[in-house]
Design a protein that fits this description.
single chain; 648 residues; alpha+beta; Glutamine Phosphoribosylpyrophosphate, subunit 1, domain 1; Rossmann fold; 4 domains; 6-stranded antiparallel β-sheet; 17 strands; 45% helix; globular
């Protein structure tokens, strides 16, 4: 696990500044504190920060092939590299290291761009083939590892594991993209391939970019997608057995390391499943497990984690943190480089901090909800779909659209009386309704929040188009399969994977995700939807398969999630901070927000008449992004330039 960065001249072979490349590389020191190296050649600069996990002795990067014609920087892990190495050796390729990085180099020489089809793992890499005058970048299928890039006006292409390394170059224009602002306030993150800066992009998951020097830069090319065929005729009993076998294999592949290894254990189904599989694969060596508990019982799952730890006799570490752990706001803003509004980033940061005290690699349970139907919103969507199917679209829009407008918003009321969102959803088609259900600020709220200036700059663009674009490629009209596909393309990548990558790498911790193994995801997509949700039971097949391995109290308790008490914070200890940030000068200076609506959000929430905690957190993090990234960034680059200028 590492941080990679670089500069590629797409037009010629102009000199690359070593000082600039060094600055870009140093900006990601936290991703790889063990070693840092640069490679410079005409028109090319590559930087690497290393967190040593595999082949500690000889796995340094940037790595060149035997004759120096191919050079690579790579972030991630290739779990099938040993099998690929044997295959490549049989083809005549000679290896000088025992690293998975060298496997990619020779795979490129053997199979060209199709090499990515052979890789099983999490990865983002860039390589240069001087013989073919070809630059190639690729990102893993599910977007576990990040890759940012920007093509400057002078033809220089910048890339990096984090946006901060691209910003550290100093040549990227910092114009904010209004379309990204619309996506952020709808979803809580900026969706791939957009970034918050107009000139920069994210390489999309399952995509690659090939550039031949001197030729126009082509678009990204997709090399993988998942298809929810739902056509697997396997029996339920056989599916349970096969699932356990696949889980065990996926976990086994992720246990290869030359450093201490453990797992997160929240007490939920997913992390407990991973720990159970790990324990079975190493019965004589206790698994290292880490949990975060909260001093507020409403947010504390540590007792359930302890049940699993006791059952498998793990080396369990629990750290209880205060529920008022809100001093990370500016730290998170600097860490994520873009506005990011998932408040569970706070406990995720803390559990990574705890884990790194004891291990260098941790396995997580992320990804199961998307593949096996774990979210409560999936069941609600399925219920709405049955109602939508029972009534013609025109009648639905007329009846439920009117009810949605007239019915009062009742955050304070028991859930059965909170029907406004349901009515609004029933008036829409399936994709529109799902987008509506996951939006932080729904369409009417964003219309009220945004100023005429921002609405004009949007030019009619709506974040709904992100979902429409993916839905057009989903290849299924199954109600559950469609929204699972949408989550795999949006929420999993833009929210979950982004959160875990930045939080873990802030502490130089590698996180591996066995439940996001692409072969497991592909298999799950063939299973009938009633294997995933049956009646009111979510994640049905996975829970049934794990009954011999986990307590029923863990498997069948209500899903809690990794939440923090935002509503209470904003009425109590963060009351003044919210007022200062949301109603302050920095947000006002953008000219993008309606001050009267901002005042309404703050006053109604703090008076207790509405729960606006999620919108307020979204605004709070946007203001922190403006101060810590947009305002501070140019000054940091200038300061970093001073020593280099003094020496020249």
């Amino acid at each position: 696990m590492c941080g990679i960065t670089g500069i590629f001249d797409t037009r010629a072979a102009r000199d690359i500044s070593r000082a600039t490349l060094q600055r870009m590389n140093d900006s990601q020191l936290h991703r790889g504190p063990d070693e840092g190296s640069l490679h410079l050649a005409p028109g090319l600069g590559m930087g690497h920060r290393r967190l040593s996990i595999i082949d500690i002795a000889t796995g340094q990067q940037p790595l060149l092939n035997g004759d120096g014609s191919v050079v690579i920087v790579f972030n991630g892990e290739i779990y099938n590299y040993q099998e690929l190495t044997a295959e490549l050796q049989a083809l005549g390729y000679q290896f000088r290291t025992k690293s998975d990085t060298e496997t990619i180099v020779h795979a490129w020489s053997a199979w060209g761009p199709d090499c990515v089809q052979r890789l099983r793992g999490m990865f983002a890499f860039a390589l240069w083939d001087s013989r073919q005058q070809t630059f190639f970048m690729a990102r893993d299928r599910l977007g576990v590892k990040p890759m940012y890039y920007a093509l400057l006006d002078d033809g220089m292409l910048l890339f990096g594991s984090e946006l901060k390394s691209v910003l550290a170059h100093g040549g990227l224009r910092r114009d904010l993209d209004p379309l990204a602002i619309e996506e952020y306030f709808a979803l809580g993150y900026v969706a791939e391939p957009r970034t918050v800066f107009k000139q920069a992009r994210k390489l999309s998951p399952g995509h690659a970019l090939l550039i031949r020097r001197g030729q126009p830069v082509a678009d990204e090319k997709q090399y993988w997608d998942v298809r929810f065929t739902l056509d697997n005729r396997i029996s339920e009993a056989d599916a349970q057995e096969e699932l356990v076998q696949r889980l065990r294999e996926s976990v086994r592949l992720r246990l290869i390391a030359e450093v201490p290894l453990g797992a997160f254990l929240s007490g939920g189904v997913d992390s407990s499943t991973v720990v159970a599989m790990m324990a079975g694969l190493s019965p004589n060596v206790p698994v290292n497990t880490c949990s975060i508990g909260f001093d507020d019982p409403a947010f504390n799952e540590s007792a359930f984690a302890q049940m699993v730890a006791d059952r498998y006799k793990t080396n369990h570490r629990l750290e209880v943190v205060k529920s008022d752990d809100f001093d990370l706001i500016d730290t998170l803003a600097r860490l994520y480089d873009e506005p990011y509004a998932d408040s569970s980033a706070i406990p995720t940061y803390r559990v990574c901090q705890l884990a790194r005290k004891h291990v260098t690699v941790a396995l997580s349970g992320d990804g199961a909800d998307e593949s096996f139907g774990g979210y409560r919103r999936y069941r609600l969507h399925a219920m709405e779909e049955r109602m939508r199917a029972a009534m013609p679209a025109g009648m639905r829009r007329a009846v439920f659209g009117t009810l949605g407008r007239l019915y009062p918003k009742a955050d304070w009321a028991p859930r059965v009386f909170r029907a406004k969102t349901t009515f609004q959803g029933l008036a829409r088609n399936s994709v529109e309704a799902y987008f509506h259900s996951v939006s932080i600020l729904r369409d009417p709220m964003r219309q009220a929040l945004f100023s005429p200036k921002l609405r004009a700059e949007l030019g009619g663009y709506a974040a709904q188009q992100v979902f429409d674009r993916h839905a057009a490629n989903a290849g299924t009209d199954d109600a559950l399969g469609l929204i699972q596909y949408l989550d795999l393309k949006t929420y999993l990548v833009g929210d979950i994977n982004t959160k875990v990558d930045r939080a873990s790498m802030a502490h130089s911790l590698e996180v591996r995700d066995p439940l996001m193994d692409h072969e497991l995801v592909e298999w799950a997509a063939t299973l009938p939807s009633d294997f995933k949700i049956r009646g009111q039971q979510s994640k049905y097949l996975m829970k049934k398969a794990m009954e011999p391995y986990l307590p029923n109290d863990v498997l069948y308790r209500p899903k809690m999630g990794f939440a923090v008490p935002l509503a209470r914070w904003f009425r109590g200890p963060l009351r003044q901070r919210v007022q200062d940030a949301v109603l302050g000068e920095r947000l006002a200076s953008t000219g993008w927000f309606n001050r009267k609506y901002l005042q309404h959000l703050v006053q109604a929430h703090q008076a207790g008449t509405r729960d606006y905690s999620a919108p307020l957190w979204t605004l709070l993090m946007f203001e922190a992004f403006l101060r810590n990234v947009v305002d501070e960034g140019p000054a940091l680059v200038a300061a970093a330039n001073e020593p280099a200028l003094a020496l020249s």
